Amino acid sequence: GTAGSEAFATEEMSNLVSYIQPVKFHSFEASKKINRSYQMSSFVETKALEQLTKCPVEFVEYNKLQLSRIYPKGTRVDSSNYNPQLFWNAGCQLVALNFQTIDLSMQLNLGMYEYNGKCGYRLKPEFMRRPDKHFDPFTESTVDGIVANTLSVKIISGQFLTDKKVGTYVEIDMFGLPVDTRRKAFKTKTSQGNAINPVWEEEAIVFKKVVLPTLASLRIAVFEEGGKFIGHRILPVSAIRPGYHYIGLRNEKNQSLTLPALFVYVEVKDYVPDTFADVIEALSNPIRYVNLMEQRANQLAALTLEEGGEEEVDKEVEAGGDAPSEPGVDQRVTMPAENGLSHTPIIVPKPPPLGGHPPQPTGSVKPSVKTEDIIQSVLTELDAQTVEELKQQKGFVREQRKQYKEMKDLVRKHHRKTSELIKEHTARVSELQGQHQRRRGALQKSRKRDGKKSRSEHSLSTLDQDLCELDQECHQRLAELKEQQQQQLLTLRQEQYYSEKYQKQEHIKQLVEKLTTIAEECQSSQLKKLRDVCEKEKKDLKKKMDKKRQEKINEAKSKDKNVTEE
Asked: What is the pTM of this model?
């Protein structure tokens, strides 16, 4: 045959390969001692996983010097695949998969090699190639020289996901190091019968700390409401840019779909621990930080400079002390800004002179106590509503009626089931008693008939024994039937108890949510009313202050005119 020529041809082909020499793996120490970079060892997935679990750092060091090939175990008769990310984390160069099965593992593999022109090669990160760096693929802390990322993804809407009138939802997964991997980290709500342009108004999913972005991949997948796959996209975290993006979806074979796309908003930042968040915020936006510091200084000035403000008022009064006829006239003082807003000038009474009688205020001037009384009256009019008052709101009462009706329906259904069960049991008892009476009547007729023919004591005792056995059998079956009914009633009652308990818990949650909503609505309305009242009082006070100031100006002008004439 041609076996010899085939073997010779195979040997010739093997001799052409002068780059890689396959060898059997013995240990990491032996490979490091031999130090032949052209040698390659193959590992079945179970053997590789064992080595990765026992010696993760040594496995990474081994892959810096030699090639390693991982292949599926032979017991995968269904051609399923293992997760290749486990061995990419260790720097394995040749991670073989069953290409005939397009599962999630194969999709990750296709996504991994999509972003290098699909040439089949991707350069490992620098820290997995440098001999002076040591890397543990199971690390949970940041890697030396690598800045961790914080990734935020918000799914806004979808476009032309499918031509069917079905609901759709989106799932987000993260693959990478074990500390970075999060399966089904986020799932949107299902859009109701809209697959053309569904909109998801939900909070963004935040991956607070991605330790190794260069090895991490983000998967965004879209499914129908029944779980049928529509499309997905696998993106390396290191290639994601912040901003709004349209992401075109791919099918299971990573082939581009014509129309389906997702509109998302992405934020990518360097990871900052919570202890340094304020410092980084100040460095990233110094203008806002300076404004915030100034605002806080102004707020403190409203408290710390109160005495200084009174001293300035005294100096102003002494400077204008040539009008002794008006000892009770108050001076205007402008208070410092608070919370970024300037206050309307308020009236501060002049302190009484030492050793003298307190001046009597004139009728045309309102002291600050009046203003405080007005504000206090406004606040007392808008007391917070108590829980009992909130419970009297129509929405809460309506919710209680609804829950009462639901509980009543649940109890009614239980009574109906109990009545049906009792009726069924009564019918079975009646049937059993009827059968017993018929059988007893038949035996008695047989006894009378036999008695005419033969009146022996033996025949009479046999009939009595049969009747006794029949009665015992009937009593036994009735007892079993009664026990069965009690067990069914007990089971039904237990089901009713747990149903009522669950229903009451849900009702309590709904009542708490409803009460919270009502309280927030009442608070909003009270705040609005309070703002309106404050604005009105502020305008009235400003008008009075302007009128008083104008009177002072006119009075000063008349005094100057009198002095000039004299």
From this structure: 0.50
